[in-house]
Amino acid sequence: MKKLLLSISLLVVAYTQAQNIYNYGFVSPTATMTSTDGWARTNQSTSPSTTALWSVSSYAVVASVSTTTPANAFQDQVYANGQSCPIPNGQDGAPNSFALVNYASTSSTLTTGATISNWLISPNITVQNGDVVTFYTRKGTSGTTDYADRLELRMSTAPATNPSGGATNTGSFSTLCTSVNPDLLTGFVYSKVWTQYSYTVTGLTAATDVKFAFRYFVTDAGTNGANSDIIGIDTFSVDRALASTESFFKNNLSIYPNPTKGILNINSDTNVTINNAVLTDLNGRIIKSVNLTGVNNPTIDITDVNTGIYFIKVTTDQGVGTSKVIKN
Question: Fewer CB within 10 Å of terminal CB in the chain, N or C?
Answer without folding.
Answer: N
